[in-house]
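ok so for the tutorial part 2 we go from a plain amino acid sequence to predicted structure tokens. step 1 is just haveing the sequence, like this:
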Amino acid sequence: MRGHRRPLAPGSGWALDLDAVEAAIRPETRVVSVNFPNNPTGALIPAADLARLAAMCEERGIHLFSDEVYRGLELDPARTLPQAADLSPTALSLNVTSKSLGLPGLRIGWIACRDRELRSRLERAKHYTTICNSAPSEVLARVAIKARDRILERNRGIIAANLPRFEAFFAEFGDLFEWRVPDGGCVAFPATSGATASRRSAPGWSSGPACCCCPRASTGRSSRTRPPTGSGSAWAAPTPSPH
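step 2 — the prediction. this is what the tokens look like for a chain of 243 residues:
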């Protein structure tokens, strides 16, 4: 199976070029996959663009698979995108407890889909690979989802409190980095001046156990690094020792 990747463009604020997506669709295309708020750029697209993408896929009999694990952590809650599954009967929305809710230990996630036949196929595949979820995790996930608004408000507050620190850092080292405040989520994707700057700056970032920086030099993408803008339960990934 061959796929066509359409990267977000940093020069346009990580905008998604829907015309390019449409041009990449082939007769054999079965799925278009998107992720907003985007990881790692923190980008959001307008709700009208998501609706257009959902309609584009539905008209062609294509499933739109929408990774929405950072939904609810928008800098401006008014920009929260609708769930793709609410926009089209052929769309799927993926979410988990580990990201925006900050509860990775529960290991619970779900897919929302209005296509009963497809949902049944996904259920059979899930049962083939996993006998069952942890019963205590299911109970705790239910509690968390019921308290979703309160948890998300707290986690957005953590991110909002951390953003000025990042802005101050990148302002101080403006000769090394290009910084754009993320629209949502708890990671960002600043550009460095190259591999040398990435390696030189990385050791100085980890000044405490709640900080993690990930230079991309080791993956061949050294012009960008990926620091978290959240901490505590607002950032799900474990934070390694600065040493």
